[in-house]
Amino acid sequence: MDFTLSEEQLMIQQAARDFANNELLPGVIERDDAQKFPFELVRKMGELGFMGMMVNEKYNGSGLDTLSYVLAMEELSKIDASASVMVSVNNSLVCWGLQAFGTEAQKEKYLTRLSTGEVIGAFCLSEPEAGSDATSQKTTAIDHGDHYILNGTKNWITNGGSAEVFLVIAQTHAEKGHKGINVLIVEKGMEGFEVGPKENKLGIRGSDTHSLNFNDVKVPKENRIGEDGFGFTFAMKTLAGGRIGIAAQALGIAAGAYELALKYSKVRKTFGTEIANHQAIAFKLADMHTKIQAARNLVYQAACDKDAGKDYTLSGAMAKLYASEVAMETTIEAVQIHGGNGYVKDYHVERLMRDAKITQIYEGTSEIQKIVISRSVLKD
């Protein structure tokens, strides 16, 4: 395996790093406290091409590969995981699904604006009784000839309050089970569509997460993606790629915490020397560095599998499972290395620790990743 980055990929990595440090870092603590992400920064990410990285240039996208997307995600996540999850959802779950399975009319109407960050997208799968069990959709989309009538509730929707375009998974033919599920494009402002209160979260607090309510929302049939009953397949295929993005986010959170801990260990002194010279701290740093590099290799492999047209279900699940575990372990150790300062917001590591936890939960919990991995292993 050769993960040598091309000149273009290195430029993208550097651009993301510069943006994260120059634009995201100032105010990141205040945004976390206020649970607010300024839209001007989303617009700037759009101008840099981060909101539609893998979208064809025909639809105003950057036309880049998955590895480039992963590189950008890692750098953004080192500084602000709330910003990077917006990028991840818009790229992996919304733009990719529309480009891969949408009609030309849908792409022209929605994808061209989503890929530039002019509007933001949201992916609506989870419900009060349908998170990991995506087949148990209670939201219904009843066929009325030229339109569907949508009713139900979606929970924990990233970008729920800021999005303009929503991909909603709903059950049309209950008797068919998962083969009766559809995916509909819903626009903000459609009559009967209401955004619920913002969730008060442990981490990624700058990202807005809401419940969504659909009360007899009339959705034109031309807003259905794919054939009748394609919704569950759409969700699974989209999530498989989304896991690579979240794996890259987890990797970035871990790497960001490690870099802060390493820097701190070289200036903080105890017992007459820098704490990096104490074996207890040096060994922590060694373990962190090793695990982060292993996670990086898994994430890059999954991205390369996707770019090569290979089945990336297994590699993506392994990358997300391991990178999220490393993110949690590394951020905890980074707080420990900082000692009392690690418990203080000004040193950033406590926020990274809080942000890390969600990477083990959304877009498929760690337990779901183990199901995916074990099924693949036992199938061989």
Describe it for me?
This protein is an alpha+beta fold and 380 residues long. Helices cover 51% and strands 15% of the residues. The protein has eleven helices and nine strands. Strands 2-3-7-6 form a four-stranded antiparallel sheet, with helices on one face. A hairpin with a 2-residue loop joins strand 8 and strand 9. The chain is globular. The two termini are 22 Å apart.
Amino- and carboxy-terminal Cα gap: 22 Å
Tally of contiguous helical segments: 11
Mean pLDDT: 96
- Tell me, what's the shape? globular
Give the low-confidence spans: none
Order of helices and strands: HHHHHHEEEEEEEHEEHHHH
Q: In which range does the helix fraction lie?
A: 40-55%
Compute the gyration radius: what is it? 21 Å
Structural class, please? Answer: alpha+beta
The total of beta strands comes to 9
Physical arrangement of strands within the biggest beta sheet: 2-3-7-6
- Main beta-sheet annotation: 4 strands, antiparallel
Beta-sheet strand percentage? 5-15%
